[in-house]
Amino acid sequence: MHFNQFLPLVVALLTSTAKACGGHTDLSSSPSVLNTEPRAVKHTCKPKIVIQNVRIFDGQTILPPSTVVIDGHVIGTDPTHATECIDADGAVLLPGFIESHAHPGSIAHLESLTRHGITTAFQPACFAPQHCAAFQGHRGLVDMYHASVPATAPGSLHGGIVFNATGNADLLVQGQNDTGRWLREQLSWQPDFIKLIAQTPGHSQETLNSLVEGAHSHGKKVICHAADSISHTQASISKVDQIHHTPLDSPIGETIARLVFSQGQVVVPTLSVMKAFAELGLPGQIKYAAAAESVRTYYEAGVPILAGTDANDEIAAKVPFGSSFHAELELLVEAGMNTLDVLRAATALPAEHWGFEDRGVIAAGKRADLVLVGGNPLEDISATRDILRIWVAGEEIDR
Ligand SMILES: *[C@@H]1O[C@H](CO)[C@@H](O)[C@H](O)[C@H]1NC(C)=O
Ligand SMILES: *[C@@H]1O[C@H](CO)[C@@H](O)[C@H](O)[C@H]1NC(C)=O
Ligand SMILES: [Zn+2]
User: Fold this and answer.
1) What is the pTM of this model?
2) Using N-to-C axis directions, what is the helix angle for 271-279 and 323-334, rounded to 10°?
């Protein structure tokens, strides 16, 4: 097929968008576009979407109506030569949501996350690296990052889970003298980050410290499962980057909150799964109120909180993919956070603390991961559920 066959289409697009965008298209540049080499013309044909009359959440506030340009897979600045123009009618544009804790097990789960506005997600346990890798890099779907196998101790609850699921005792960390071997094997799987489990019975403090130190020396971020108050103390002492879950036994104290804050650690409370656990009615000290109070204590100490749900359909405490993220934001507000900090927990803060400079805010050059919503989530957080349109790296999702 010859390139010239496409020229009439190019002309038609430029002409129609000049009208649709209210004459923003710079007509004087059109002839030169048509006279350039095919490669250059192709460049101007990449999708450029102009969203007008849109109120942008800039990470602090919701701005008066303005224009946003989606230029290919990033946010652009130049509204000319648009291929599509959208009048947002004053709707609010948010950065795509970042889900810091979800366990998708199928493409359908990824689709469900994406349909709910989640454009980046972190899978915090990978029993087989090829399985998790299969969920990465899908165009038009949530951008996935995955952990190592969780570092578990023999004789611990999660050690039993890892061994029963894999039949491979080498995946467990035998003790402090075994952390070097375990890390070497896990790093050869090329996980995006390392996952530890703190629990009783479980790893000694020395083993946790050694795993964190070893992972950091290889430039890997470390997150730690900690679902009770003793584990929160262990995780904070070990200097992991992120503490996931909140205690169901008793709330954390201010001393731990201050330590976590002073060490620059962040917390991913996963209130959704804590609530689901509490609702199972298991015997023992399981109180959702302890989890919610811990969030409040961390928040008041200034600890950054990230939104994550533990979405899964594997354990008894099931949490749905995608819809639970919006419920999590509501639970964080209920626990005492203000709506601005909750929106930041879903966007800019996870980008910062997971180490991504290319997303989390709406700004020129960032990935065009965007969610257009009907209401004002700063006034009522449940407005995040009123999704009108979603773009993942510039590609609009068919909902
Ligand atoms: C692992 O399997 C053993 C033997 O079937 C069982 O007793 C144990 O409860 C299992 N552990 C977990 C955590 O599922
Ligand atoms: C590590 O120490 C434990 C005892 O704590 C011992 O049983 C094991 O053999 C040691 N492993 C290695 C690789 O030295
Ligand atoms: Zn989890």
Assistant:
1) 0.90
2) 90
Distance separating alpha carbons of residues 87 and 50, to the nearest angstrom: 9
Pocket test for ligand 2, best of 170, 172, 173, 178 (most atoms within 8 A of CB): 178
Per-residue pLDDT of 312-355, as tens digits, reads: 999 999 999 999 999 999 999 999 999 999 999 999 999 999 99
Ligand 2 cavity residues, CB under 6 Å: 174-175, 177-178
The answer to whether residues 307 and 332 touch, using CB atoms and an 8 Å cutoff, is yes
The half-sphere exposure of 126 on its side-chain side, counting CA atoms within 13 A, is: 25
The residues near 110 (Cβ < 8 Å, ≥ 6 apart) are 104, 135, 138, 141, 142, 144
Q: Which of 359, 355, 338, 363 is nearest to 347 (CA)?
A: 359
Q: Which atom of ligand 1 is nearest to the CA of 163?
A: 1
Q: How far apart are CA 360 and CA 370, in angstroms?
A: 9
Distance CA 90, CA 64 (A): 8
Q: In sequence order, what DSSP letters do the residues of 126-160 get, joined into one string?
A: -SSHHHHHTTSS-TTS-EEEEB-S-B--TTSHHHH
> Which ligand ends up closest to the CA of 318?
3
For residues 389 and 119, is the Cβ–Cβ distance under 8 A? no
C-alpha 175/C-alpha 159 separation (Å) is: 12
Phi (first) and psi of residue 232, to 5 degrees: -65, -40
Q: Calculate how far, in angstroms, residue 238's C-alpha sits from the geometric centre of ligand 2.
A: 21
The alpha carbon of 43 and the centre of ligand 3 are apart by a number of angstroms equal to 42
Q: Whose CA is nearest to atom 7 of ligand 1?
A: 160
Distance CA 152, CA 173 (A): 6
pLDDT in tens, 227-247: 999 999 999 999 999 999 999
Identity of the residue numbered 11: V
CA 371 and chain centroid, separation = 14
